[in-house]
Every structure is written in structure tokens, then in C-alpha cells.
Amino acid sequence: MNALSVRTKLTAWYGGLFLLAGLVLVVINYLLVQGTLPDPARFATASLGSAADTVYGIPDNAVQAPAGVAVRLVSGSLDEYRSSTLSTLVVNSAIALVATAALAVLFGWLMAGRALRPLHDITSAARRLEAGKLDRRINLEGPPDELKELADTFDGMLDRLAESFDSQKRFVANASHELRTPLAVQRTLIEVAMADPEVAPELRKLGTHLLHTNERSERMIEGLLVLARSDRGLTARAPVRLDQVVASVVRATSAQAESAGVKVETRLRPRTVAGDPVLLERLVTNLLVNAITYNAKGGWVYAEVRGDPALEVRNSGAVVPPEAVPTLFEPFRRVAGAERTGDTRNAGLGLSIVRSVAHAHGGAAEAQPGKRGGLTVTVRLPS
């Protein structure tokens, strides 16, 4: 429920309660006036009877006839006056009640807006928040009421989130060094040992397998670090020519595509997006490497940059079940039985990183199976 609907409901409650109170007041006023006005018949009889008693020397039968007519006349006039008075009272009260109810609704709307203004501030602050920009606070001024307590609680939560993200940044920075260094040393030692011409064939085979495992671990760690970095959001944005990034990545992966027997075609229109050039390059690289790796000999890859979506990468290959497509964006998930034309050293983080980078740029990544096999991945990015 948004703040506008809450404001409307509060206004309706204010106006409804005032209208109900006004109706009760009108009914009470009507009953009081009705009880105060005299009964026409009794008032006419009492008044004319007392006047007849003051006439001396006139026989009673001579007074009764004119008196009866006079009573009916006076009673009718008083009854008409009484009805007119009550009708006027009801009409004027209804007009006053409607006018006052309209003013009550107007003032209720204004008061509800003023009472809900802190909620608007809290909502605006929450919408402006990003993983890399947690320095905004509400700092609500006012008496220590429930809304002030809510705003202070929200500010305290933001303080804890900012501290948590700072801790995560430090952890990623430390992990980047502590995890890469041992693997680099291990790879160097294996390569030095395998460089000895007197190494036995069994040890050389073992060293090759260890290098394969070591490189896969390095790629997995690199992918996890990129995933953690993109999940934190962007600290800064710069104009990036997406078409130029795609062209550069296509050149960089041309050797892999040629080795896999896959033909890469492109259609690149000029498109500028605001973001991190390193993360965007990683997004494009993962898409093209995935499209080449999960393909078939003699297959094809088609990459297009345009308006919306900003990037689309299609490839041939094995048929992808529609129910398996959503799981491809989860870490370490692959389609069971999918054939590969490239190496097997990927860590299963490619599309997870693509989706995370797209979200960090305020966009989205989607996939759907191709009509004749393969996959189509679209990436939407704001200009």
C-alpha cells in the first residue's frame, strides 16, 4: 500500500466521522426544536379559551361557535408555521452539514498529508539507496512520537548496513590477494617442475591435471570476486560505448571461437550506457565465451547491440529445456548433458555474473531457448 492510498483512507475516515457526528448533531437539534415548539391544537385552544373567559355578559352558546372556528384557524396556521420552521431547519442544517463536511475533508486531506510526510521521507530515502551509496539518512526533526521512532530506527538500520558493506568490501579486497597468491605460487611450482625434461610421464600427466585444476580454481575465485563486486553495486558511473566493448571482446575471443569451430557474427549499432567499463566488459565476455563453449562444431554465435534490449547474444547448440532456463542464472548451475566445444575449466558462474552486473547497472538479463537449439540471452541497460 502506498502513501497516497493511506492518505486517502485517513481523509475518508476523517470526513466520515465528521459527517456522522454532524448527522447526530442535526438529529438532536431537530428533536430539541420540535419539542420546544408548542402543539398547535392545545396552544390555540388554551389561548382562545382564555380570551373567551374574559368576555362578560355574552352567553356561552354565543361564544362557542365562533371560538371553534377560531381554534381551527389558529391551529392550522400554527401547524403550518411549525412544519415550515422544521423544514427550514432541516434544509439549512443539511446545507451547513454538507459545506462543513467538504471543509472537513479538505482539512483532513491536508492534515493527513502533514502526518504522513515523514513516511514520504522514509520512502524517498529507501528508493535512493544503493549498495555503494549508503550515506543518506532521514534525520527526522520533531517530537519523539511513533514516526520519529520509525525514522530513527531506519537510520540505525542504514548505519548497520553501511558498516556491513564496508566490511564486505574489505573482505573482498583481502580475499582477492590472499586467494590469488597461493594459487599463483602453486601454478608456478608445477610449471617449473614440468619444465624438467627428466620428469617421468606419470608425473607430467599428474602435473597437467594439477594445472588444469589450478586454472579452474583461479577462474572460480575470479568469478566469485567479480560477482561479489557487482552485487555491491556501482560506486561510480561513466559513459561506456557498449558496441565498442562488444567489438573488443569479439576480437579477444576470436582464437577460442576458431579453435571451437564456431563462427561469430555481429551487428553493432552505436550505443552508450552509463556504468563500469570493467564490469560491462566482463558481462560481454561471459556471454560470448558461454555462447562459444556451449555450442557445436560448425555452429554460430550472433551478437547484436541496439536500443532495447541493449545487447542480445544468440548461439546454436544443444536444445535447452525451457524449465532449465531460469536455473542457468544461478551459480554453479549448468544444463545437464550440454555439449561443450571449448575447455571444461569454467566454474559455472558465467550467467550469474551477467545477471549481477546487469542489475548493478539498473538493468536486467533474460534468457530463452532457441527454436532450433542453443540459447538467446538479452541484456537491458539504461542509457
Characterize the structure shown:
Helix 1 (3-36) packs antiparallel against helix 3 and helix 4 (146-194) packs antiparallel against helix 5 (201-231). The radius of gyration is 43 Å and the shape is elongated. Strand 6 and strand 7 form a beta hairpin. It has three domains: 3-128; 146-231, Helix Hairpins; 238-380, Histidine kinase-like ATPase, C-terminal domain (Heat Shock Protein 90, 2-Layer Sandwich), CATH 3.30.565. The longest helix is centred in the N-terminal third of the chain and has 69 residues, at 60-128. The model is unreliable at 51-58 and 60-65 (pLDDT under 50). It starts with a helix and ends with a strand. By secondary structure, the chain is an alpha+beta fold. The protein has helices at 3-36, 40-53, 60-128, 146-194, 201-231, 242-252, 254-260, 277-293, 350-360; strands at residues 238-241, 263-268, 272-275, 300-305, 311-315, 364-369, 375-380. Its EC number is 2.7.13.3. GO terms for molecular function: ATP binding. The chain crosses the membrane at residues 12-33, 89-110. It is found in: Cell membrane.
Short précis:
The chain is an alpha+beta fold.
